[in-house]
Design brief:
The protein is mainly α. α9 crosses α10. The longest helix has 32 residues.
Length: 372
């Protein structure tokens, strides 16, 4: 049987016909194309501490936090069709929630320095619970999710979509960043919250602590990816895609788009909060600068370059764009922004579907040509 099957496949391929055996081979090749890069990337991340300097490893850890928030944006934009230009707010809220714990632990019972400089004499009541890490960790997810839920319900219930939704989220980023800057005694103002020294009683400058934080960030990214993959592959994910493609049809067949949009917006905000908390721990600072319009738009750029609606694309885009930005600023400190702009414009013109989206299109095109 083996000989005739092989001969039949060869003849059919010359005729441009895909037999079941050939189709199976293509399916296996497609699966390998999707799985192998993921496994290879995970191995590289796990082995990175062995061949990267402490500085480069710290940069990579920061880029991985960016990858988590890019993944979160992809859920609402790539799959839900809602372009959010305010995810920096959720990133920052998660960062502030955990930074409050880090600052109180570093202060060792004393009033945080920026509060003393601002004239406060006692700890504000809403700061006190954050002295407990087991309160701060849930707040990292809960605070951004609640804010997103309240905003999302009001916006989606009013049937605000498209560019108007984007403008509202952009306005949110502007309002919240200005609010945090103005509340100097409680948020640190423009400087934000910084000067963290310990976490769980261990000094943050210790090499083993930095290594553990790096692996925690890798684990968080893997967990976020798996959760997102499960979500978009589920019935809810199919409803989300249907919502993106034709919201009115989904409403007419009995589903509630407001509920679906609100839930995915809250989930996305919670993921962004986790990314912000990890960022604050890795970098040692969180400030309103990370909550404004510019960083929020940059987060969308990561998704666009990597390929929205692909999950792996935003992760790749966040790491590549951030690495290019870092490398160009080091090599060309005076004009790096021009090179960065040209790099972004070129990538969008050459790969309008993003890097991963373009690869998927080429693969599908090859399958269709062989099927003729």
């Amino acid at each position: 049987m083996k000989g005739p099957l092989v001969l039949e496949d060869i003849i059919s391929e010359h005729r441009g016909v895909l037999t079941p055996t050939t189709k199976t081979k293509w399916d296996i090749a497609g699966l390998a194309l999707r799985v192998f890069p993921l496994v290879a990337a995970l191995l590289l991340l796990l082995l990175a501490p062995a061949f990267l300097t402490d500085f480069r490893l710290s940069l990579l850890a920061k880029f991985l936090t960016y990858a988590i928030v890019a993944l979160a944006i992809d859920l609402v934009w790539g799959y839900g069709g809602m372009l959010s230009l305010g995810h920096g707010v959720f990133f920052g809220l998660g960062g502030y929630a955990f930074a409050m714990y880090l600052k109180l632990e570093s202060s060792r019972g004393a009033l945080p320095d920026f509060m003393s400089w601002s004239g406060l004499t006692e700890l504000p009541f809403f700061w006190s619970p954050f002295a407990n890490v087991w309160f701060a960790i849930p707040m990292v997810v809960a605070v951004p999710a609640v804010v997103a839920g309240l905003l999302g319900y009001l916006v989606f219930h009013s049937r605000i979509t498209g560019v108007y939704f984007s403008l509202i989220t952009q306005a949110l980023a502007l309002i919240v960043s200005i609010l945090f800057i103005g509340q100097q005694p409680y948020t640190g103002g423009t400087n934000g919250i910084t000067n963290f020294q310990t976490i769980f009683g261990r000094a943050l400058i210790l090499d083993d602590v930095r290594l553990i934080l790096y692996y925690v960030t890798v684990a968080a990214l893997v967990f976020a990816f798996l959760m997102s993959k499960i979500l978009v592959s589920s019935r809810f994910g199919r409803l989300l895609i249907a919502l993106r493609d034709d919201e009115n049809r989904l409403r007419f067949i009995g589903y509630d788009p407001v509920l679906i949009k609100t839930l995915i917006f809250m989930f996305s905000a919670g993921l962004s909060g986790v990314a912000g908390a990890l960022f604050a721990t890795q970098v040692g600072i969180i400030s309103p600068a990370m909550m404004g319009i510019v960083p929020s738009i940059e987060m969308v750029v990561w998704v666009a370059v990597g390929g929205r609606g692909t999950l792996i694309g935003p992760i790749l885009g966040a790491i590549l764009v951030s690495s290019a930005k870092s490398g160009l600023s080091e090599s060309f400190p005076d004009i790096w922004s021009y090179f960065f702009g040209m790099l972004f414009i070129g990538s969008v013109l050459l790969f309008p579907q993003g890097i991963v989206g373009t690869i998927q299109q080429l693969w599908s095109l090859g399958q269709r040509r062989l099927a003729r």
